[in-house]
């Protein structure tokens, strides 16, 4: 479903190559994890896939169900079914969380050629999904992420994901800074969305999230490349031995 081939990316401002040939395929129904030391290019990969400014693709391709996503505007990527939960969710003062969610859901339905969701169906759906993430009614009424704690912001990202029902979900360090309970809620939200038709790319610095979101495949990224791919045992190996051995092995 998501197919990344030989992706090379540099910063637009500086002449600095960050991704140096990333190859990665995430099949429908699978959860792939990317781990790797700080500065290896994990967030850059998620930013480039989301269409954030400031990055230049110098070589390679990225497609979703065969469609070139790198050519799309960020909103077209979302309409195509790509969702990204960021390491640092943005605050949107003046826009109510509920209004934001409904607008996003309807924009996506429109892009798919579907009718708008009715107010009552939307309300029912958002309340049900918010409850499962322990997001209370008050948080739904407040401006998007404004004054939310770290854990609330991340849970809110997962709520957005649950409402949009994307084909391909990318989570960049959605666990960082979370206490165990908040992390479990995030994991629960992701697990509830696991589905044969949906793929996940879970980027995480630590193994502990992967105790709760059991990945099918684990990739290790270092210095702008995937240096190793394996099963869940690879995450345990990292936890035990760090990245140094893997880097040395590859070198
Ligand atoms: P990770 O998410 O794996 O920690 P990043 O993708 O955030 O790694 O960063 C990869 C490398 O690119 C790092 O060396 C980082 O300093 C550099 N980098 C990323 N974005 C920028 C930027 N906007 N300006 C300067 N350097 C950047
Ligand atoms: Mg980092
Ligand atoms: Mg990062």
Chart the SSEs and their pairings.
Elements: E1 2-11, E2 17-26, E3 31-35, H1 42-50, E4 55-64, E5 67-68, H2 74-79, E6 82-85, E7 92-96, H3 97-111, H4 119-132, H5 137-141, E8 143-144, H6 150-164, E9 168-172, H7 180-193, E10 199-203, H8 209-212, E11 217-222, E12 225-230, H9 233-241, H10 244-250
Parallel strand pairs: 3-10, 3-11, 6-9, 9-10
Antiparallel strand pairs: 1-2, 1-4, 4-5, 7-8, 11-12
Helix pairs in contact: 4-6, 6-7
One magnesium ion binds next to helix 1.
Can you offer a commentary on this structure?
39% of the residues lie in helices and 28% in strands. The protein is of the alpha/beta class and 251 residues long. The chain has a single domain, classed as P-loop containing nucleotide triphosphate hydrolases (Rossmann fold), CATH 3.40.50. The strands form 3 sheets. It has a 6-stranded mixed sheet with strand order 6-9-10-3-11-12, sandwiched between helices. Strands 2-1-4-5 form a 4-stranded antiparallel sheet. Strands 7-8 form a two-stranded antiparallel sheet. Strand 1 and strand 2 form a beta hairpin. The longest helix has 15 residues. The protein starts with a strand and ends with a helix. The site of adenosine-5'-diphosphate has 11 residues, from helix 1.
């Amino acid at each position: 479903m998501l197919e990344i081939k030989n992706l090379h990316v540099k910063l637009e401002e500086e002449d600095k190559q960050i991704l140096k040939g990333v190859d990665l395929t995430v099949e429908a129904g699978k959860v792939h994890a990317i781990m790797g030391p700080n500065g290896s290019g994990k967030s850059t990969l998620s930013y480039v896939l989301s269409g954030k400014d400031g990055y230049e693709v110098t070589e390679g391709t990225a497609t979703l169900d065969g469609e070139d996503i790198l050519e799309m505007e960020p909103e077209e990527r979302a309409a195509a079914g790509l969702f990204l939960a960021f390491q640092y969710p943005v605050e949107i003062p003046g826009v109510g969380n509920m209004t934001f969610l409904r607008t996003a859901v309807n924009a996506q339905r429109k892009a798919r050629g579907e009718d708008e969701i009715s107010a009552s169906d939307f309300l029912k759906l958002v309340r049900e999904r918010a409850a499962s993430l322990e997001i209370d009614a008050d948080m739904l009424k407040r401006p998007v992420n404004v004054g939310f704690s770290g854990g609330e912001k991340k849970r809110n990202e997962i709520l957005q994901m649950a409402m949009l029902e994307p084909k391909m979900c990318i989570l960049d360090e959605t666990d960082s800074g979370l206490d165990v309970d908040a992390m479990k809620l995030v994991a629960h939200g992701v697990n509830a969305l696991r589905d044969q038709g949906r793929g996940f790319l879970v980027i995480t610095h630590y193994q502990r999230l992967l105790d709760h979101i059991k990945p099918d495949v684990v990739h290790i990224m270092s210095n702008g490349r995937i240096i190793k791919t394996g099963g869940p045992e690879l995450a345990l190996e990292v936890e035990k031995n760090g990245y140094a051995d893997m880097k040395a092995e590859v070198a």
